[in-house]
Amino acid sequence: MTHPLYMKPNPLYEHYLRQTERVAALFGQKLNPRWPHLAAEISGNAGQGRALDQLIAQNSDSADDSVRRRIKVMEEKPVVCIVTGQQMGLFVSPLYIVYKTISAIKLADELNARQPGYCFVPVFWLEGEDHDYDEVKSVRVLDKSGDLRTFSLNDDQPWQGVPMNRRHFREDIDELLFKLRECLTPTEYSRELFAFLKTLYHPGADWLRAFHGHMAGLFSGKGLLFFNAGDKRVKERSREFFAAIVTQNDEMLQSFALGAERIKNSSCKVQVNVQPGRAYLFLTEGGGRRLALERQNGYFVHREAGLKYSRDELLRLLERQPEWFSSTVLTRPLWQSYLLPTLSYVAGPAEIAYWAQLKPAFELFGLTMPHVQPRHSVTLLEPRVAKLLKRFEINPARIPVDVRAFVLHHLKEKEMPELKAWFEELHRMKDEKERTLLKLVEEIDPTLKGPARKSFYRAMEIMDQMHSRLVRRLREKETLLTDQLTHVHRAIIPAGAQERVLGAIYFQNKYGTRWLEQLFKELPDRFDRHRYVEI
Fold this sequence. Notes:
Blueprint: H1 11-18, H2 21-24, H3 35-43, H4 52-59, H5 65-74, E1 79-86, H6 96-114, E2 119-126, H7 133-136, E3 138-142, E4 148-152, H8 172-183, H9 190-200, H10 207-218, E5 225-228, H11 232-237, H12 239-247, H13 249-265, E6 278-283, E7 291-296, E8 299-302, E9 307-309, H14 311-320, E10 325-326, H15 332-339, E11 342-347, H16 349-355, H17 359-364, E12 371-374, E13 378-381, H18 383-391, H19 403-413, H20 417-444, H21 449-476, H22 479-492, H23 498-501, H24 504-511, H25 514-522, E14 531-534
Parallel strand pairs: 1-2, 1-11, 2-5, 11-12, 13-14
Antiparallel strand pairs: 3-4, 6-7, 6-10, 7-8, 8-9
Helix pairs in contact: 12-14, 19-22, 20-21
């Protein structure tokens, strides 16, 4: 059973999981494709994988033996990639970044075991060119008391709009690390963890390198490769791709619109509405702010910055400064397949919804659309929480979002057996006694039937009020139980779905690598349902 928090508002995701006919046709591949056929098609497409050598080069100096072994196999067999990626949240936050990565690694391992003729490589695409600082500047954890705490870096107004791969940490990172450690429960893992974090997160440190180093530490030994598409050498390989976006901009927008129309025809909601005035291309002019170009009277413009380029002018700029160009949410999947031989992309529900509108665009650019793999979805159950769930016989999938309703319900369930039994018996007798009374009243004086019914209702209301008063007195005596139930709720639903709220650092500090090992052990090779994993 899936908790209501994890039910997705866009039905397209659920249809994709069930592979219903109206949605399956929107994608290039089925949920369970013919893997050898797809691997052969992608590895044989000369228009894909243009930067595979850069993927190897970027990981060749890794200190992780499993990465070096992976690269060695890549040099011996045809390579296809299982790719995932996400915004670079502070201290690897939120948790679903971890689950996406585990999903990619497990799928690659499964396919390597089943299809020895190819090298299936799990790759994390570093979203270094994203510029939404507000989305990544914070991390949330549970403190020593089990309360949810948020730690955020200061706003940096002069750097607003600048890509994350051009940002460096300032002095406030030291204070944030200190406060974070003070709030977390000290464990046998704390000293080593925070010593490691200080080597990554310190004033002057590069944001992308810090995130990359943190993720590499988390997944050491798993053969995970990282890809930085913002690297200048990768951008030089991307000239042809961005040139196609410029020269075929009208056709590209038409393909996006066609994909959106097909989704509407399937009676599903379009995740990303296509805007005819947008070029779906970013320009980071002069290494400054990342600007979304628009189309106006045959020109590519950004009115606020005063930019205006004809098509030929933009192409000449691309030839000189390819590192200034970057993709948008709808063009990144295309660029990803252009650069890497992407067999499968591990995606969350919202991503799957917008990938559904990209099939015509893949066809336009002559790229094989990858398989789309739903990421794992998990709620971690800490030992104390798992113990309390069993003691109180609570199904975590049935816990309501409202903590007060959850606590009151279970407090009432735990009241004195005699009191509970008495009022339950009273309510069982109520209907029978009311019918008997009304029958007698009707024989005596039918005009009193209404007042009698009202009197009976008032009497029961008084008894219910007495029941509530007794329950309230019991609640006052059950402070410990209230605290335990509140702790369970905060651990499982900390202001929302756990995987979307808490950062990985909370579990790293408390359990070292044990929680990750448990996830790799318990999660299946591919997503089937939301899971509750005891650690």
